[in-house]
Design a protein that fits this description.
Elements (H helix, E strand, L loop, with lengths): L6 E4 L3 H11 L5 E5 L22 E4 L5 H11 L3 H8 L1 E2 L4 E4 L1 H13 L4 E5 L18 E4 L7 H11 L4 E6 L3 E3 L9 E2 L12 E5 L1 H12 L21 H5 L27 E7 L6 E4 L8 H8 L10 E3 L3 E6 L2 H4 L5 E2 L2 E6 L9 H19 L12 H9 L47 H22 L12
Parallel strand pairs: 1-2, 1-7, 2-6, 7-17
Antiparallel strand pairs: 3-5, 4-5, 8-15, 9-13, 9-14, 10-11, 11-12, 12-13, 16-17
Helix pairs in contact: 1-10, 2-10, 2-12, 3-4
C-alpha cells in the first residue's frame, strides 16, 4: 500500500508552507498537517496557513541589511513566501510589509490548489517513537509546528528530544482603525524620506506629552504571567512597557525615536514619535510599530489614547503576549536541519531557534528542500556559511561562521558537549553570523553591501552546483 504522502509537514505556518512548497514543486506528495481551526492558538485568529500573528512587516528590503539579503536569497531559491509577500505588499518605506489577510489567503490557495499537496486539518499530538514510523505514513517528516506548538505535541517533543525545552515570550502590537485616527495630529512620512512618503503615519509627541505617556505606560497594569513561567523575553520583540522600565528615554532611542523625521506643523524634529504602519492594502487598519505589549486591554486603551492622533482611536486588535517554545537546536539538529540520529525527521521555523518571519520561512525552505533530496536518495545540503540562510542553519546547529567560510558539519560532530543550553537563544539574521571579509571595510553600509554581494555569489554558485540536481518540476515564473 502506498503511503498517504511522501513528505509530511507538521504545522502550516511560514516554515511549514515553505517546506511543503519546496517538496511539492519537485514532484513529491506532501501532507500539510495543521491543527487550526479545530484547535486554535492564543495568537491566531483564522484558519489560513501562513497567518502573521505579530507585525505585518517582513522588515528591511535592502541589501545593506541582513534580512534584506535573506529575502533575496529566498527569491533565488523559488520561495513561495517571498512571491506572495511581493504580490500583497503595502507601503512601508524601505521595508517589505504585507496585507496580512491577502498574504495568508494567497498562500493557502496556492497550496490547496497544488496537485501534489493535501492540507489535513487535524492536531498531531505525538511524534513518531519508532524511526520507521513517521507522521501520516510519510517517508520524511518536517516538524514546523512553530513557537505556539500545542501542549500535547510539546510534551511529545520533550520526550522525543529527551531534554527540557527552552522558551521565551513574544508580544503582539495593537492595531487601530484608520478612520478613527485624528489626521490633524499626525503626518505621513518615512524616515529620511526613504521609500513611499505615505508609508507611515507619524504621531509626534512634545516633551510634555512624552513624559505623560511614559508615566502612564510604566504604571499600567499588565496581564499576569503563570507562576511557573519565568520571564524570558526575546530582545528583538520586547513588550513596550518592558523597554520603558529600562529608563525614561529608552523608548526615544528605540521604537519612538524621532530621527529622520520633521513635523511639518512645527518644522522641527519631534521630541518623540509613534509610527503607524498600514496593515492592509486598503489602509483601513494601522499597526503601532514597535508597540508589542502585555498590558491589559483596558489599560492599552487608556495609555495609548494619550498618543497624539489616537485620542479617539478604535482598536481592531489589542496587543497580546504568549509563550513561545523552541528546542535546544545545537544539541539536536545538524546544519541540514535533520535531527541527530533521526535523519528522516527535519525541523524548520521558530521552533529551531531562529527569530522572525523571514528567518522562519528560510529554514522551512531548507528543510523542505533537504526532505525532497532525502526522498530522491541524494545527500541533504549544508548551505554555505557565507550566505544568510547558511549562517542561520549553522547557528541553530551549533556551528557558526568561521574564517574559512565553512558551515556547521552535516555529521553533527560540532563540539556540542561544550555548549550549555542556557547560552542558546533565538537569533535574527544578522551580518555577525557571516564570516568576515578578508579586507577591512570601515564604513558599515559599504561593508554590509560587500557581504551581501559575496553571499549572493556564493549562493548562485551553490545553486548551480547542487540545488539544480533536484530541479523543480514546475516553476511559477
Amino acid at each position: 500500500m502506498k503511503p498517504a504522502a511522501d513528505l509530511a509537514v507538521i504545522g502550516g505556518g511560514l516554515a511549514g508552507v515553505e517546506a511543503a512548497w519546496q517538496a511539492a514543486q519537485r514532484g513529491y506528495r506532501v501532507a500539510v498537517l495543521e491543527m487550526r481551526p479545530q484547535l486554535m492558538t492564543p495568537a491566531h485568529r483564522t484558519a489560513d496557513l501562513a497567518e502573521l500573528v505579530c507585525s505585518n512587516s517582513l522588515r528591511s528590503n535592502q541589501l545593506t541589511n541582513a534580512v534584506g539579503l535573506l529575502k533575496e536569497e529566498m527569491r533565488r531559491l523559488g520561495s513561495l513566501v517571498m512571491d506572495w509577500a511581493e504580490r500583497t505588499a503595502v507601503p512601508a518605506g524601505a521595508a517589505l510589509a504585507v496585507d496580512r489577510e491577502a498574504f495568508a489567503a494567497g498562500i493557502t490557495a496556492a497550496l490547496a490548489s497544488h496537485p501534489m499537496v493535501e492540507i489535513v486539518r487535524r492536531e498531531v499530538t505525538e511524534l513518531p517513537g519508532d524511526p520507521g514510523d513517521l507522521a501520516h505514513g510519510a517517508g520524511v517528516c518536517v516538524l514546523a509546528s512553530g513557537p505556539l506548538t500545542s501542549e500535547l505535541l510539546a510534551a511529545s517533543l520533550a520526550e522525543f528530544t529527551g531534554i527540557e525545552h527552552l522558551y521565551f515570550y513574544d508580544a503582539v502590537a495593537p492595531v487601530v482603525e484608520a478612520e478613527t485616527i485624528d489626521r490633524s495630529r499626525v503626518f505621513p512620512a518615512s524616515r529620511y524620506e526613504k521609500g513611499d512618503p505615505e508609508g507611515y503615519l507619524n504621531c509626534p509627541l512634545s516633551r510634555e506629552e512624552y513624559d505623560a505617556f511614559y508615566e502612564a505606560l510604566v504604571g499600567a497594569e499588565a496581564h499576569p504571567r503563570r507562576s511557573f513561567d519565568k520571564a524570558i523575553f526575546f530582545e528583538g520583540c520586547l513588550p513596550v512597557e518592558e523597554i520603558a522600565r529600562r529608563g525614561r528615554h529608552a523608548l526615544r532611542f528605540g521604537s519612538m525615536k524621532p530621527v529622520g523625521l520633521v513635523d511639518p506643523g512645527t518644522g522641527r524634529r519631534p521630541w518623540a514619535v509613534v509610527q503607524l504602519r498600514p496593515e492592509n492594502t486598503l489602509k483601513t487598519l494601522y499597526n503601532l510599530v514597535g508597540f508589542q505589549t502585555n498590558l491589559k486591554w483596558g489599560e492599552q486603551r487608556r495609555v495609548f489614547s494619550l498618543i497624539p492622533g489616537l485620542e479617539k482611536a478604535a482598536f481592531a486588535r489589542y496587543g497580546v503576549m504568549h509563550r513561545n517554545t523552541f528546542i535546544d537546536s545545537p544539541r539536536l539538529l545538524k546544519a541540514t536541519l535533520q535531527f541527530r540520529g533521526r535523519d528522516k525527521v527535519l525541523a524548520g521555523g521558530q521552533l529551531t531557534g531562529v527569530e522572525g518571519y523571514v528567518e522562519s520561512a528560510a529554514t522551512g525552505l531548507v528543510a523542505g528542500l533537504n526532505g525532497a533530496r532525502i526522498l530522491a536518495g541524494l545527500s541533504p545540503l549544508v548551505f554555505p556559511a557565507a550566505t544568510a540562510v547558511g549562517s542561520l542553519c549553522a547557528h541553530v546547529s551549533g556551528g557558526g561562521a568561521d574564517k574559512t567560510g565553512g558551515a556547521g558539519a552535516a555529521d553533527g560532530a560540532q563540539g556540542t558537549g561544550r555548549l550549555r543550553r542556557v547560552a542558546f537563544q533565538p537569533m535574527n539574521a544578522n551580518y555577525g553570523l557571516l564570516p568576515p571579509l578578508e579586507n577591512l571595510v570601515r564604513d558599515r553600509r559599504e561593508r554590509n553591501l560587500y557581504l551581501s554581494e559575496r553571499a549572493l555569489k556564493a549562493l548562485d554558485d551553490f545553486i548551480k552546483d547542487h540545488v539544480l540536481d533536484l530541479a523543480p518540476v514546475t516553476w511559477r515564473r
